[in-house]
């Protein structure tokens, strides 16, 4: 299935135990030790709909966006409710973050028919977080009548705003901006370290594509749209197919245009054997130079989810698991098969 072009039209089901280390050698999944030193409430957070004042340290946080639970958990806050995106994970929380629930089972919300306003109000939240929620002004006003509500920063896309901005928005609402900045700095340092260990990647182009065609279309990410997990490692994103991308979304590549995505390395976010097989049979995918020469990476479902989630916890998981696959692909040694 395609992702959000993913959630923008519907929350479609698409798109790992975190052991990657931070730059200081500590687990990247470690939670914050608490509120910023001297970080007194109230705090004011500026966002796309104005400003929100959080009067006191939140105790009942509801995540109405599709990935915010990761950030909350990494900052030491177990939300009372989270929102299911895709994957049907336990507690709508993927393996790289699930242990941080500490046995809690938050209410699982859905957006199949829009936000569940009545259910959310009944939870009596004291903070609502929706930095990756596609929230409208009307939605924001309804949520704000229940509790202080934090949404994405000004001028951000509904769903593809930078992960750094989302971390800092959420951290500000928790009164822990310094902790959020530390999360950002540590992960950026980890990616910079891996890039420095692979200077040869700076001379290579890369394409990031969903892992299977959907309704006769392969959805491919143009440069700058959720591709920084590759550019931060030194790769240069392939260009030339941007005309096929609706504003703020993936490029819609038909079978006859598949040749546009060829690159030194291609990352296909495959999720199962069936999707891998469909991909290989789609248009000229099977004869792309990167595919024929074993320079294409195929993920499993969890790694695909980690890339799509694009949170610090999922990105750390992706860095650990994707790095050896990129090493193989850049040397023409990547297996042309679905990961077993």
UniProtKB/TrEMBL annotation:
The record's listing under Gene3D superfamilies reads: Nitrogenase molybdenum iron protein domain
Q: What is its main location?
A: other
Q: Where does this protein have coiled-coil stretches? A: none
- InterPro entries, sorted: ABC_transptr_periplasmic_BD, Bact_iron-sidero_bind
Carries keyword GTP-binding?
Answer: no
Domain named Fe/B12 periplasmic-binding: which ranges?
60-330
Instruction: Answer yes or no on keyword Mitochondrion.
Output: no
Q: Where in the cell is it found?
A: Cell envelope
Q: Which family does it belong to?
A: Belongs to the bacterial solute-binding protein 8 family.
Q: What is this protein called?
A: ABC transporter substrate-binding protein
